[in-house]
Design a protein that fits this description.
Blueprint: H1 5-34, E1 49-51, E2 61-64, E3 70-77, H2 79-83, H3 88-91, E4 92-98, H4 103-127
Antiparallel strand pairs: 1-2, 2-3, 3-4
Helix pairs in contact: 1-4
Length: 131
């Protein structure tokens, strides 16, 4: 008799969860090596490295920060401050929202985060003369 098809799905889910856990450990380890993160381009208060989103992602700008976690960076203006005639710095809001991703989505983002972190480490190594 053939195996239960649901066993295949459960096995696949277990593989993805294991991969997500291992990638989480790697991203956190690389983030510690990179720390402190560089200022995020175009932001005034946020430090992190951009993670290119997978195709079809519902998230905006995703960054990996020094803690090795993935965040969506939301930049906007404080409407109340703008209404009071506040300056552009005082009215600017930069909010980082930690992403809570299912394992399969996390794997896609984490793989890209590893690439971004390694690239940053390579650039820093080249800046030191490759030592």
């Amino acid at each position: 008799m053939a195996e239960d098809p649901l066993q295949h799905r459960a096995y696949a889910d277990a593989l993805v969860e294991r991969a997500a856990g291992q990638l989480r450990d790697l991203v956190q380890r690389l983030a510690r090596e990179v720390a402190p993160s560089p200022p995020f381009p175009g932001s005034m208060f946020t430090y992190g490295i951009e993670v290119e989103p997978p195709a079809g992602s519902p998230h905006g700008c995703v960054i990996v920060m020094d803690d090795g976690e993935l965040y969506e960076l939301q930049i906007g203006l404080d409407d109340e401050e703008v209404a009071r005639g506040g300056d552009h710095v005082a009215s600017r809001r930069e909010l980082t929202v930690k992403l809570e991703l299912p394992p399969a989505d996390y794997v896609a983002y984490a793989h890209r985060a590893v690439g971004a972190l390694v690239e940053t480490l390579e650039q820093r190594g080249a800046g030191r003369g490759g030592d």
